[in-house]
Specification:
- It is a single chain.
- This protein is mainly β.
- It has no helices and eleven strands.
- Strands 2, 4, 5, 6, 9, 10 and 11 form a seven-stranded mixed beta sheet that branches.
- Strand 4 and strand 5 form a beta hairpin.
- It is elongated.
Length: 120
């Protein structure tokens, strides 16, 4: 099957930066859209950013100007650079990918999630 593994989370002070990475592996022909969403305790899930296979991006209003999503198609990896972090960015961040492979086309897989904590 397909696995997505996030890395780069942790504790950071407000105003700081971090870079999340998510590597997809397994039976993959290609990956369409990849992205990140997050969920804080007691809050609804929020789509943070997404990037298509062609490189088009979109961002949640809450992170516009502070976040940059990018991808390396050769490595099946998506990145999320976040700057000027705020305590309200604290959440579990999940990456996802819309994968084409021998098991089917356009199947969405999700990582296990990684915690980002921003201290004030």
């Amino acid at each position: 099957q397909v696995q997505l593994v996030e890395s780069g989370g942790g504790l950071v002070q407000a105003g700081g930066s971090l870079r999340l990475s998510c590597a997809a592996s397994g039976s993959i022909f290609s990956i369409n859209t990849m992205g990140w969403y997050r969920q804080a305790p007691g809050s609804e899930r929020e789509l943070v950013a997404a990037i298509t296979g062609g490189g088009s991006t979109n961002y949640a209003d809450s992170v516009k100007g502070r976040a940059t999503i990018s991808r390396d198609n050769a490595k099946n990896t998506v990145y999320l650079q976040m700057n000027s972090l705020k305590p309200e960015d604290t959440a579990v961040y999940y990456c996802y990918g819309n994968v084409n492979g021998p098991f089917g086309y356009g199947i969405t897989y999700r990582g296990e999630g990684i915690l980002v904590t921003v201290s004030s």
